[in-house]
Amino acid sequence: MAEQDDWQHEFDHAWANSAEHKEPSARARMLAARWRENPPAPAPFRADPDPVPRRRSSWASTAVVIGCVAAVTILIGYVQLRSSY
After folding, report:
1. Of 20, 19, 36, whose CA–CA distance to 28 is shortest?
2. How far apart are CA 5 and CA 16, in angstroms?
3. How far apart are CA 45 and CA 52, in angstroms?
4. CA 37 to CA 14: how far, in whole Å?
5. Domain coordinates of the chain in residue numbers?
6. CA atoms of 70 and 35, how far apart (whole Å)
7. Percent helix, strand, coil in the chain (nearest 5)?
8. What 3-state class would DSSP assign to 85?
9. Helix, strand or coil for residue 49?
């Protein structure tokens, strides 16, 4: 029974969350120390990233896919025609 009480006490999240003082994580401490010396530049909320280079049109991609499917179909037909002789 004591073992079960130890298990419940060890993983009692309500008890841990009710603590008066909570220590910040190591990452939060590291960033606070870094920003004290060199504060980050202000940035707008969800700033737009750098412009993305334009890709090929979707029609060009569609044509490439259809061309590959046609080439494979013709190749398979040719191989079957040669093997039937």
Report:
1. 36
2. 16
3. 19
4. 37
5. 60-85
6. 59
7. 60, 0, 40
8. coil
9. coil
Q: Is the dihedral of CA 62, 63, 67, 68 positive or negative?
A: negative
The pLDDT profile of the chain, 85 residues, written as one tens digit per residue, is 456 566 666 667 777 777 777 788 999 999 999 999 999 888 777 767 777 777 667 788 889 999 999 999 999 999 998 887 6
Residue type (1 letter), 31 = L
The encoded tokens of residue 56 equal: 């090929």
Which token pair is 80?
Answer: 């079957």
Q: Tokens 């080439």: give the residue.
A: 71
| Residue that has been written with the tokens 């419940």 in this structure | 8
Structure tokens of 67?
């061309």
| 81: helix, strand or coil | helix
